[in-house]
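To start, an entry.
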Amino acid sequence: MPKGKPWSRDEEKRLRQMVQSGASISDLAEAFSLPCDAIRMKLSRIGLKVVVQKKKYKKPRTTTSVLSSEIITHEQGLSTLAAVIEALKQPGLDKMELQRLRILVVAVSKYDFVLEKFERWDEFENRLLDVEKKIAEVKKVKAI
């Protein structure tokens, strides 16, 4: 689509359908042969937002679930950082993607710090439970 050419109704309809199906800004830009900024401006004009950006990566994404019922390990945190480093090597990342990656780095760093504290407390608690068991055993032996 040449620069400055007005959007047809069919193109707008196709744009809406692609956004509803979860297409990313870069997917839309590629499909319409336009820069990402032009797609953002058009989406803004017609009142649409791309909420979830699905990008095609060779490796699985590390941020598929923000809230997990399980605690992630140090290794999983390092794996996340490694994935962020690989993602940062890709040329042409937009500002939002860079911010998202920066947030991941900060979150994983803080999480790792808190996890280390948790593990120390967990180890301390386990030792305390072992001592309490031994004390109970000693009391039983003395009672006999």
Summary: The chain has five helices and no strands. The helical segments are 9-20, 25-32, 36-45, 74-88, 95-143.
